[in-house]
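TASK: fixed-backbone design
INPUT:
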């Protein structure tokens, strides 16, 4: 192997699962990757041609599009929200399996009781596209965290968010009313240029392992 392959790995809760996914395919990352005190962001592997960069999940798509990373691990929700046409979706994984749902403090939402509903979400495009198809008028309240509080404190009529076990909704007295997409997990992406020039290398890693 002569060409170099840069893999973008997400920091945070999915980090270890992505590492295991790569390990199962023969890729071992240097010990510094697992050192919480290190300031390194680029890491060697047992293959000198393969490097790992550790990024915030929200930055991986941009790094991949711009060619700084050849492949990256991102949530499928990120792809749906941004409708990016300059990326190749290579593989779906079962890492971080969850769904996108609408939840409220009512067991059932009556979508005819108001002319305009307030929706709290970080997925503005997914929300607006979904309700547009149903001819339901909404006002999007863009939030990035603690979205479950929006209904309780009158910020929104309901929320649109990722749901995994449903425990967070129950803990905040919310009901899961509508499942919009039941097939959300971590996916592997590449730019068209990287995939075109390193296709065999990438396919070998993802399908058979190195």
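OUTPUT:
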């Amino acid at each position: 192997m002569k060409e170099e392959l840069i893999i973008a790995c997400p920091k945070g809760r999915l980090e270890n699962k992505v590492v295991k996914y790569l390990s199962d395919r023969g890729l071992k990352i240097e010990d510094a990757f697992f050192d919480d005190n290190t300031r390194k962001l680029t890491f060697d592997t047992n293959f000198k041609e393969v490097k790992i960069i550790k990024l915030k999940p929200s930055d991986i798509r941009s790094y991949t599009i711009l060619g700084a990373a050849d492949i990256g691990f991102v949530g499928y929700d990120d792809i749906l929200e941004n409708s990016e046409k300059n990326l190749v979706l290579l593989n779906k994984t079962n890492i971080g399996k969850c769904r996108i749902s609408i939840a409220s403090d009512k067991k059932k939402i009556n979508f005819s009781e108001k002319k305009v509903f307030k929706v709290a979400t970080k997925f503005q495009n997914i929300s607006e596209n979904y309700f547009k198809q149903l001819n339901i008028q909404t006002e999007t309240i863009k939030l990035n965290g603690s979205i479950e509080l929006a209904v309780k404190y009158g910020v929104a009529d309901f929320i649109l968010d990722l749901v995994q076990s449903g425990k967070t909704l129950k803990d905040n007295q919310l009901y899961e009313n509508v499942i919009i997409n039941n097939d959300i997990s971590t996916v592997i992406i590449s730019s068209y240029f990287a995939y075109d020039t390193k296709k065999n290398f990438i396919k070998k890693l993802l399908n058979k392992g190195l």
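COMMENT: The chain has a mean pLDDT of 94.
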